[in-house]
Amino acid sequence: MEGHDSQDSKQSAADMTAFVQNLLQQMQNRFQTMSDSIVTKIDDMGNRINELEQSLSDLRAEMGVELSPSPAAPAKPTEEMTKEDGSA
Residue 88 and residue 77: Cα distance in Å, rounded? Predict the structure, then answer.
């Protein structure tokens, strides 16, 4: 009988190993699919942002507004700004 129990436990271990390997493969496939989907969406968003920037640039050109060298550069302080911070 002991040999039969040993054979059953070996088969059980082999079945469990196969099950776990299959489960891990399925998880890997799902993560890869999700990763690919996220990368595609990020690329699409980047393209949409580029199109939006181009549209804004075109609108500025149509309006005759020149682009400043750095959009983040602060503008000249207005009268309100100088009163608030006490400068000028």
Answer: 9
